[in-house]
Write a structure and sequence with these properties.
Blueprint (H helix, E strand, L loop, with lengths): L2 E5 L5 H11 L4 E4 L10 H6 L7 E4 L2 E4 L1 H12 L12 H25 L13 H13 L11 H15 L7 H11 L2 H16 L6
The structure holds glutathione (GSH).
Length: about 210
């Protein structure tokens, strides 16, 4: 099997399982015990010097960073379906929201939760309230970020939003709840959640 995902169900690799289920290609999961620090071992560090999950390999290609993995998979295996065709102007909106997740939502939510002191004009993620307003507008313009069409940008942005809602780093507004509900109805997300839950059970982590 050419696609291998280094995975732990408690990590962002869980979102990559959702990506792979949306794409529908065969893949193998390699469990990395992050509680035992296996992500800092030689095998993982050779692939990702950050010593972090997720890591996806596809033949000789090594991809890290959730957003990069999603964009890679969609272009390689679902171009014109989960990512707009290369000459489609919708690609601008697609990249905009896909990259908003790691460049604004992740650091912006962390800065707020950890009480970081910073200048909003200098920090790329700006101020928390503007971030929330921007996100609410993005998820309310249609069912999905591209309007009627679901795309990999929804997995990247939506996966980050779901994570932030779960850990109460973003408060559940009606717009966020409605959007998260539309995502939860996707059979691919349900299959991914079932896979992650089965691994948790198998490894006795479902009670933690
Ligand atoms: N920027 C990375 C974040 C990766 C990350 O922080 N992964 C966490 C799990 S969700 C991890 O591996 N933590 C263990 C560690 O840092 O030792 C991405 O988007 O993939």
């Amino acid at each position: 099997m050419s696609i291998v995902l280094y995975h732990h169900p408690f990590s962002r690799a869980a979102t990559v399982v959702w990506m792979l289920e949306e794409i529908g290609v065969p893949y193998e999961l390699k469990h990395v015990d992050i509680m035992a620090g296996e992500q800092k071992g030689a095998e993982l560090v050779a692939l990702n010097p950050m010593g972090k999950l997720p890591v996806l390999t596809d033949g000789d290609a090594v991809v890290t960073e959730v957003a990069a993995i999603g964009l890679y998979l969609a272009d390689r295996y679902a171009l014109g379906k989960l990512s707009p065709a290369t000459d489609d102007p919708k690609r601008g909106t697609y990249f905009r929201w896909a990259l908003f997740a790691p460049s604004v939502i992740e650091p912006g939510s962390m800065a707020k939760a950890a009480g970081w002191a910073f200048k909003t004009g200098q920090a790329g993620w700006g101020d928390y309230e503007s971030m929330l307003t921007t996100m609410e507008k993005a998820v309310s313009a249609g069912d999905y970020l591209l309007g009627d069409t679901f795309s990999m940008a929804d997995v990247i942005f939506g996966g980050t939003l779901r994570y932030m809602l779960q850990f109460k780093m973003i408060e559940a507004s009606s717009a966020f709840t409605a959007y998260a509900g539309r995502l939860s109805a996707r059979p691919a997300l349900q299959r991914a959640e079932a896979k992650n839950a089965a691994i948790l059970k198998e490894r006795g982590l479902d009670k933690t």
